[in-house]
């Protein structure tokens, strides 16, 4: 029988595949429904090839709240490689602050003038309208757990911030974070929508609500 040579999916694999396609259809359905919010976490899906891992909704909310408090009334907030926090901030209509997103992934250009294309390999290649020391707080989540990536991202952070820094990166980067940015680890432990192998932590250089 010629059919014997045709590979067959196991029932478990087939069920997983069907579940994946169903989730995909549901996501697409959400995007076309009137209730879809382009700022919701997950509205732009993670691209693991770009080392993207979105925060859980609770973590993004906590970090966004902290950023608003730290920035103060009328404050300016910059999110570097931290789109989940940017999206959560944009959900807070009526709050008195402004926010920009600096991101390598051009899909985030859907957010208009608040989107700034950013490549950490060129840390100071920024638009002229991003003046030095013009943000009340900078939130950053460097895409890679390497000292090179952190050091280059730190150049951008120090250029943009008036002083306050909120860094999210691996626990293994504690020493380098202190070295390049003068930040200390907080008690708050950020969570991601998918479990990561590396332990993640938050670091700040000011008295925050994350301890």
Automatic annotation (TrEMBL):
Location in the cell: Cytoplasm
Keyword Methyltransferase in annotation: yes
Reaction(s) this enzyme catalyzes, per UniProt: L-lysyl-[protein] + 3 S-adenosyl-L-methionine = N(6),N(6),N(6)-trimethyl-L-lysyl-[protein] + 3 S-adenosyl-L-homocysteine + 3 H(+)
A single MF term (Gene Ontology): protein-lysine N-methyltransferase activity
Main location as per UniProt: cytoplasm
Gene Ontology process terms (BP): methylation
Keyword Cytoplasm attributed: yes
InterPro entries in alphabetical order: DNA_methylase_N6_adenine_CS (IPR002052), Efm5/EEF1AKMT1 (IPR019369), Mlase_EEF1AKMT1/ZCCHC4 (IPR041370), SAM-dependent_MTases_sf (IPR029063)
GO CC terms of this entry: cytoplasm
Protein name as it appears in the record: EFMT1 methyltransferase
Organism of derivation: Hylia prasina (green hylia)
Top-level taxonomy: Eukaryota, Metazoa, Chordata, Craniata, Vertebrata
């Amino acid at each position: 029988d010629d059919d014997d040579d045709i590979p067959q999916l196991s029932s478990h694999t087939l069920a997983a595949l069907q579940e994946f396609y169903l989730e995909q259809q549901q996501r697409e359905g959400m995007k076309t429904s009137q209730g879809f919010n382009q700022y919701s976490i997950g509205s732009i899906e993670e691209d693991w090839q770009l080392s993207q891992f979105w925060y859980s909704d609770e973590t993004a909310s906590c970090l966004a709240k902290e950023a608003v408090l730290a920035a103060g009334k009328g404050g300016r907030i910059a999110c570097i490689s931290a789109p989940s926090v940017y999206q959560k901030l944009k959900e807070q209509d009526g709050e008195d602050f402004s926010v920009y997103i600096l991101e390598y992934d051009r899909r985030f250009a859907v957010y208009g003038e608040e989107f700034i294309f950013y490549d950490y390999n060129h840390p100071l290649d920024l638009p002229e309208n991003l003046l030095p020391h013009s943000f009340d707080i900078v939130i950053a989540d460097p895409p890679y757990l390497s000292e090179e990536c952190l050091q280059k991202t730190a150049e951008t952070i120090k250029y943009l911030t008036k002083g306050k820094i909120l860094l999210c990166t691996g626990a293994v980067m504690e020493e380098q974070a202190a070295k390049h940015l003068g930040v200390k680890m907080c008690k708050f432990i950020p969570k991601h929508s998918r479990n990561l192998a590396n332990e993640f932590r938050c670091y700040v250089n000011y008295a925050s609500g994350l301890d």
